[in-house]
Each structure stands twice: as C-alpha cells, then as structure tokens.
Amino acid sequence: MSEIELRIIAEDELEAAIALEQRCYSPEAAATWAGFQYRYANYRPFFLSAWIGRQLVGITNGIRTSQSACGDEMKGNQTSILNGMNFCVLTVAVDEEHRRNGIGALLLRKLIAQCEASDIENVILMCEEHLIPFYEAEQFELRGISASKHGGITWYEMSRSLHTIEHLTE
What we know:
The chain has a seven-stranded mixed sheet with strand order 1-2-3-4-5-7-6. The longest helix has 15 residues, at 103-117. The chain starts with a strand and ends in a 9-residue tail after the last strand. Helices cover 25% and strands 28% of the residues. By secondary structure, the protein is an alpha+beta fold. It has helices spanning 14-24, 33-43, 103-117, 132-137; strands spanning 4-8, 48-52, 55-65, 86-94, 122-127, 141-145, 156-161.
C-alpha cells in the first residue's frame, strides 16, 4: 500500500469528506453538511483526514463536551461546550476499498494524541457491535448499550481515559 498522509482536512476538502461519510454510514446515521461545517468551524484541530496520493481514504472528527456519553443531540444541533473536558468521537470512516489496512487505527491514534495535547480527560464514542473489538484494541472500554437510537441503530458506548497516572504502592 502507498504511503498514508494524516492531516487536518482543508476547508475546500469538506465536500469530499461528507461524501466519504455518506458512503460509510447509512443515510439515517451519516452526518449532515451542517454538522460537518459546525465541527470544522469549532473543532478544526480534531477534524483529521487520511490520504493516499490525492485520494481521501479516511476521516475522523468529533466535538468537545462536558457530557460523559455521546447522546443523540450531538449528532444534530450540537450542544457541545467548546472547552469541555471530554471529546465525543462522531466519525471514524474509511473508504471501503482501504479498510482493514490500519487507516482507521492511525486516524484514531492521531485524534487521541490531539485530545491529549488539548488536555482532554476522556474520549467517548458510540459504535455498532461489530466495531467493539476495534475500539477495545485501541484501549477503549465498553460501557454498555447506549440510550441513543440515532439512525435506528443499536449503539454501544465506549470510553478511554487520558492522562491517567498510576501510583505504585509498596
């Protein structure tokens, strides 16, 4: 596989990003154009993209929040807090022909590094059941079935604490 470039997406690339989102999620679960514009305007350092040559092959993004779970309201008109101590991952999408090559994991790790650099305490997300092992491999813990019914899907809440310091006792 060719070299993968990870970077913050440029504004003129948002249309390609929303097209990728819509290919990867059902119409009921995909983000809206307004949602992408909001995330880009308010959380640009967290709107990451993966490229092979000139082809957009993956994206990830989300919002800061003070909430401890990713509720349905974060999928539409966000009630986020610009300096919230938690980060809700709203998108991890990889083009179908490039899946299972580590691109999603690379994007997620870069997103987590950005969260750590921004002093975020926890990363939270909702995923479908078949993706639980992927997120567990990236040190996320399953918290249970989400109350969310976004897109008519059964979602599972997962979280990962950042900046934890383990104390050794004698």
